């Protein structure tokens, strides 16, 4: 699926939408000048051998908010991995908020996520990805699984952020290690590419302090703000993320997040 937005008479409008297979998008009417896109996987989840490509672009001066209808589920994979490839682009003076809801890795699930982003020198990009290992409300543990997450972000053509995470095998035991997740089962990574990133750091850290059930840290440098969060459950993690994202965005979350 590919979706792009452009600025028309002070408002962001749809420029191009291409849909194929189980990947669909809906564009609800929302107040303000931004365009909101709700991405839907009509397959209900992913398993070994599934491939999902999503391309999202905010053109010059446009503001596009992309989220998902619900959590993405990664089911048991007898062989092979489910792969999600995300391509984000932000034009001059544009803004893109990439705000998918959680990914839930079931016992036996194998999942690879590859995220590539290109941001203009004066563009702004906000990314959040959260993952829950096992259906924690059921007490499920991922003792056999795979999770591989790769981010590459470029600004003005230069690589400014690269991060790779890989957990394989007995994921629950790996998450119990103090240097990994300290027993947490829900993790999130957030990256904000914006000219005033350093000025936002104190506000982000203040939000983290108000969520003592969440272990988190944030740093900012050269127009980048990066935060990581760990919690025992997805519900606790989500509450902290909503507060963080509302502070950074200066507006309420997309309605899909609040349903």
Automatic annotation (TrEMBL):
Q: Mind telling me which Pfam families this protein's record contains?
A: UreD
Q: Subunit details for this protein?
A: UreD, UreF and UreG form a complex that acts as a GTP-hydrolysis-dependent molecular chaperone, activating the urease apoprotein by helping to assemble the nickel containing metallocenter of UreC. The UreE protein probably delivers the nickel.
Keywords recorded for this protein, A-Z = Chaperone, Cytoplasm, Nickel insertion
- The protein here is known as Urease accessory protein UreD
Q: Where in the cell is it found?
A: Cytoplasm
Lineage, uppermost ranks: Bacteria, Pseudomonadati, Pseudomonadota, Alphaproteobacteria, Rhodospirillales
What the protein does comes down to: Required for maturation of urease via the functional incorporation of the urease nickel metallocenter.
Signal peptide, first to last residue: none
Q: Indicate where this protein is primarily found.
A: cytoplasm
- Family recorded in the similarity comment: Belongs to the UreD family.
**GO molecular function: any one?**
nickel cation binding
What are the record's GO terms for cellular component? Answer: cytoplasm
């Amino acid at each position: 699926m590919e979706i792009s937005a452009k600025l028309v008479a002070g408002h962001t409008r749809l420029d191009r939408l291409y849909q194929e297979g189980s990947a669909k998008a809906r564009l609800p009417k929302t107040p303000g000048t931004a365009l909101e896109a709700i991405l839907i996987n009509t397959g209900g989840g992913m398993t070994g051998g599934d491939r999902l490509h999503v391309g999202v672009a905010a053109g010059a001066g446009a503001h596009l908010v992309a989220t998902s209808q619900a959590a993405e589920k990664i089911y048991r994979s007898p062989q092979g991995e489910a792969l999600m490839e995300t391509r984000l682009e932000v034009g001059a003076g544009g803004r893109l908020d990439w705000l998918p809801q959680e990914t839930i890795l079931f016992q036996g699930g194998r999942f690879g996520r590859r995220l590539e982003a290109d941001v203009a020198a004066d563009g702004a990009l906000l990314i959040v990805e959260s993952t829950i290992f096992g259906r924690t409300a059921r007490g499920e543990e991922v003792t056999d699984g795979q999770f591989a997450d790769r981010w590459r972000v470029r600004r003005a053509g230069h690589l400014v952020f690269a991060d790779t995470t890989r957990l394989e095998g007995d994921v629950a035991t790996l998450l119990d290690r103090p240097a990994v997740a300290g027993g947490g089962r829900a993790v999130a990574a957030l990256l904000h590419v914006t000219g005033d990133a350093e000025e936002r750091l104190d506000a982000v850290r203040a939000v983290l302090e108000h969520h003592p059930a969440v272990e988190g840290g944030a740093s900012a440098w050269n127009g980048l703000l990066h935060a990581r969060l760990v919690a025992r459950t997805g519900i606790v993690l989500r509450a902290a993320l909503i507060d963080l994202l509302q502070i950074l965005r200066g507006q309420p979350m997309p309605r899909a997040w609040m349903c």
